């Protein structure tokens, strides 16, 4: 049979590990909730939509084709 002090030490160690795990989880949860709340605010990051007419689309497509460098295939 195991000594009572060994049983008590193992139970105490388990309680300490459980408390440390809960604290670590809560800190992680708090940080992720805080970052999710502050990272995407609509006022600070508005999305802009640009509507191009047919002529502007053609000019944009030709300028993009000119800017693209040629690639050598090995």
Alpha-carbon Rg, integer: 30 Å
Distance between the termini: 73 Å
Count the E strands: 0
Amount of helix: 55-70%
Major beta sheet, specifics?
Answer: none
Strand proportion? under 5%
Describe the protein in words.
This protein is mostly helical and 74 residues long. The protein is built from two helices and no strands. The longest helix is centred in the N-terminal third of the chain and has 36 residues. The protein is rod-shaped and about 90 Å long. It starts with a helix and ends in a 7-residue tail after the last helix.
List keywords for this structure.
74 residues; mainly alpha; rod-shaped
Task: Give a short summary of the structure.
By secondary structure, the chain is mainly α.
Provide the fold topology:
Elements: H1 4-39, H2 54-67
